[in-house]
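Exam revision sheet. Question 4 asks you to relate a sequence to its structure. Input first:
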Amino acid sequence: MPFTGNEDQSISLVEAAKLTKNYRDSVPANATLSGYFSKQELLKILGQAGSVGIRYYYAKSDDGKQRLVLVGVKLEQDDLFNGEIAEHSIDCPPFCPNPNPLNS
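Answer key, structure tokens:
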């Protein structure tokens, strides 16, 4: 099944809040809860020729921190691994938003 770039993957705030609470309840108090990627970085990935979306890979840094690696994806479900790849998210904590249904 090829990707189209128009797959509906939305969920409600209630569902998202439940999922993020499940995660928070399962990790130590000092765990990374979220990360920020800039619009510019996401647009670099999405703006590549043939990119219809972004795939994430779970990863781990040398110091043991959980990370996400982002890469563009083609219609055929293949990664654009020779293109733009992102990882350097800005972690929460320490850079966290104000309390909201997704984080508290």
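Marking note for examiners. The chain has a mean pLDDT of 95.
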